[in-house]
Design goal:
It is built from 4 helices and 6 strands, in the order βββααββαβα. By secondary structure, the protein is an alpha+beta fold. It has one domain (10-96): Alpha-Beta Plaits. Strands 1-2 form a two-stranded antiparallel sheet. A hairpin with a 5-residue loop joins strand 4 (44-46) and strand 5 (52-54). The radius of gyration is 14 Å and the shape is elongated.
Length: 97
């Protein structure tokens, strides 16, 4: 299994790339909590009110958007590839300082 504390040698907790849930689109009871069941890293959890939240964002596998395509309501989104490249560039630049 992949070491989740780093991504390409960069500290994972400094890379703000993880899913966001649009609560207006999220229908967890209708879909059977598919994102919670699908994610092997435990990124999603069920809140007391029955909705889904991103509870462990830095456990998400950077660049992997497969859970997004599992959601039948289109409620999961990620930063774009360009945003990810910029995040990585900034983290690398901060490490050099």
């Amino acid at each position: 299994m992949q070491n989740r504390s780093t991504y390409t040698g960069l500290p994972r907790n400094e890379i703000d790339w993880f899913p966001q849930i649009n609560q207006e689109k999220c229908q967890p009871k209708k879909c059977g909590f598919v994102c919670v069941k699908y994610c092997p890293f435990g990124v999603f959890s069920i809140k007391e009110n029955g909705f889904v939240e991103v509870s462990k964002p830095y456990e998400c596998n950077v660049g992997d958007e497969s859970c997004k395509f599992q959601c039948p309501y289109g409620a999961i989104s990620f930063p774009s590839r360009e945003e990810l490249k910029e995040m990585l560039r900034k983290v690398r630049a901060n490490m050099v300082k």
